[in-house]
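Task card 7
Instruction: Convert sequence to structure tokens.
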Amino acid sequence: MQFAARTEKIEPFYVMEVAKAAQALAAQVADSDNPMIFLNIGEPDFTAAPLVQQAAQTAIAQGQTQYTSALGLPALRTAIGQWYADRFGVQVDAGRIVVTAGASAALQLACLALVNAGDEVLMPDPSYPCNRHFVSSADGVARLIATTPDQRYQLTSEQVQAHWGAQTRGVLLASPSNPTGTSIAPDELQRIHAVVQSKGGFTIVDEIYLGLSYEEAFGRSALALGEDIISINSFSKYFSMTGWRLGWMVLPPAMVPVVERLAQNLFICPSTIAQHAALACFAPESLALYEQRRAQFKARRDFFIPALRELGFGVPVMPDGAFYAWADGRALFPKLGVSNSWDFAYALMERAHLAVTPGRDFGASDTGCYIRFSTANAMEQLQEAVQRMRRLFA
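Output:
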């Protein structure tokens, strides 16, 4: 059997390979004094809010399970638009909002709508691996540009200007970012977008962690820059609905019918049950719960980042959002007899029963020295993880 050439451009998702090894070991040590602690997967440890669960049950009981419009339930699109106004002070017409089968579907639709074969899309290194693979699956070329802690591991307008070539069509950014938890300063994002506009390109901003922003200086939506911004968002992170597979995108008006046509053919519609459930996300009771959880995520960050630094990890930039720590582990490699973060991750797994993610997935610029920790876990688990590492590195 011959496979399409594009499949060769899609690398394995190494996060999941490490996760499989961790799960296998976890089964062996589940009843021991040191069961596996998972700090590897970017998934909230919280589940959907009670009202959301009730709304899903009601939708099923009432038979609200048939196809919706490919654009999503009108009431849900309106509710999302109101959330932008209430939370971020940005007016977003519901007609520009397209509900999707997760943020992954939104990114796929955006790339299929905008990227031709051979087109380049500029992205920061490090960045979430699937984002570059969405570009590749549209037969485009993801061009990763090395970033530094001084620039918060984000692209600058100068880099976008310098690296824009004849085949470049746009930029794909993430703010806050996976794996770094850092955001683009609003004034810098405005400068980046101005460069892109001058080139006639597109600006896609992955904002799936925007609800989990902790610093007032960064917690602003890119949609404030104008209607030509393409914003990707999700119910997975802030709203704790990972397995429900529901997201959305906000598009320039002219792009909506193009994406609608693609979505009709590729997905028909997002999950109807998940859409009815998601309406309950915007009830005052649910929003209050999400804000309580955001405070807990921040408290975890405030404990874990200083603890990592005390252990000897380099974390040069305090994450301002999401639930990740992008930590340079090279000073600790000799303690475990390893030379890279891949082997370091396996050593932590086997010797301390801690599952973490090596930097390999996230780019090529020095990522072999970095480990991504997820703090989407209970404070007690984070504290125990620190104690285990302290004993291991002693």
